[in-house]
Amino acid sequence: MSAPSPGSGESRASARSLGGAVVEQWAAFVVSTAGYVVVNVETARLLGLTGFGAFVSIVTATSLIGQVALLGTHRFGLRDTAARRHDREAVGALLGRSRLVAVTLVPAAGLLTGVIAAAVGGGGPLTRLVVGASTGGLVVVVANQRLWSSLLRGRGRHRPASLLDGPLGGPLALTTQAVVLGGLDLVAADVSLPTVLSVVVLAQLPWAVVAAYTAGRDLETRLPPVRDVIDAVRRSWRFAWIQAVAYAGVSVELWIAAPFLSAGDLSLLSAANRVSVALVAPLAAVQVVASPAIARAHGRCDTRTAQRVVKSAGTAALAACAPLLVVCLGWPGVVLDVLFGGGFAAGSSLLRWLALGALVNVATGLCTPLLAMTGHERVVATVLTGSLALRVSGGGVAVALGGVRALVVIATVVVAGTWLQLYVAAGQRTGVSARPSLRPSAARELLQLAG
After folding, report:
1. Positive or negative torsion for Cα 240, 430, 413, 385
2. If pLDDT is split at 50, 70 and 90, which confidence band does 332 have?
3. CA distance linking residue 146 with residue 70, whole number of Å
4. Which residue has the higher pLDDT, 240 or 152?
5. Given this model, what pLDDT does residue 85 score?
6. Mean pLDDT confidence for 71-90
């Protein structure tokens, strides 16, 4: 990429738009992170050490299946919609292909997941039915919210996208889940895992419908022939693989550990994992906004704007994550005890190690979206696949021989190496540095752009 005139009106307008979007995204991020923490805390208190680990394992697995069912159309659609968002005919065609995936592959994945969950689950027929319906429903609503919110971002509609996307469905869905689960905590003496799962999916369902309606309400979209699913897969499978591997990397230790650990130890690991995910939420918040801006800059061969976007967004994320990381590295037991209650403080060493991996993730900035949005998604897919393979093989041996702490140590070392490798690759392939800046002027950049 080569830079246009640094003072060009298009570059300044793009930067101002990005800054405003990041401010809106961070407002949604505050609500979303608070809701995410509250939902996990309420669930842990309702289910205790014996059931919380199973809940997290199910939710993370259904989220992964939902992302896989999209076959990368949400990220591919985000990139192409961002680059061509003023061409209404082209955007309408993209939305039509996305809708085709939403009514074919996604329901099929949800049905298959629900049938398997009902078949392998314990309890009586009614319990199996509720678990099957809830897990299958989670696959469908997660996939739809991710798909349509991504297309909203590609069209530059960051405000509704920020409210309708995020962990467990985004701010609106999380607020709904938190209110209902809080009510259950007050009135019910004994709440089962199937009940909690059904609450989560029913609270998320209406917001998935809103996301689908909002994304294309002003465009004429036609459902293409079913054979076009094959074309969608061919065009976006690398994005699908990146998303699947990246999301699996968030929770793979939980799935590896499940056969080897007691319910209590699995819940301790789940609590530490949930907190470590929240630690990098500010980075995720700026990535989803910066990704279409990077794609547009790349489409214009505008290296200057791409560098400005990446550095400013990475610096803002680092500034927001730093206090959280300091607290979790210094007082992990206190964090777990305050959030989840008695017994969970025993996972303090697990949280400290996971926080170290999160620190490297944040310090390496926006290297992953920088590569994916500039046509280098194959590099991301290769690195993340190798990392996941190492974590599965090394982690499986570690947990079998040394227990949960050995598993977490191996995961942290591999994760740190992965982010460093992606950071180097991003600079070499794009000519743009993903390194956040420690200068105060850079940290204030996005707020200045928004103003």
Report:
1. positive
2. very high
3. 9
4. 152
5. 66
6. 67
406-433 tens-digit pLDDT? 999 999 999 999 999 999 998 888 888 8
CB 286 within 8 A of CB 22: yes
Nearest one of 214, 100, 93 to 165, comparing CA atoms: 214
Cα–chain center distance at 323: 21
Per-residue burial over 51-78, b if 16 or more Cβ lie within 10 Å, else e, is bbbbbbbbbbbbbbbbbbbbbbbbbbbb
Structure pTM?
0.71
Cβ proximity of 356 and 350 under 8 Å: no
| CB crowding 392-414: b at 16 or more within 10 Å, else e | bebbbebbeeeebebbbbbbbbb
Which of 234-268 are b and which e, b meaning 16 or more Cβ less than 10 Å from the residue's Cβ? ebbebbbbbbbbbbbbbbbbbebbbebbeebbbbb
For 215, the token pair is 């994304």
**Is 162:171 a contact under the CB 8 Å cutoff?**
yes
Nearest Cα neighbor of 414 from 245, 241, 238 is 245
Closest-CA residue to 43 (of 31, 32, 66, 59) = 59
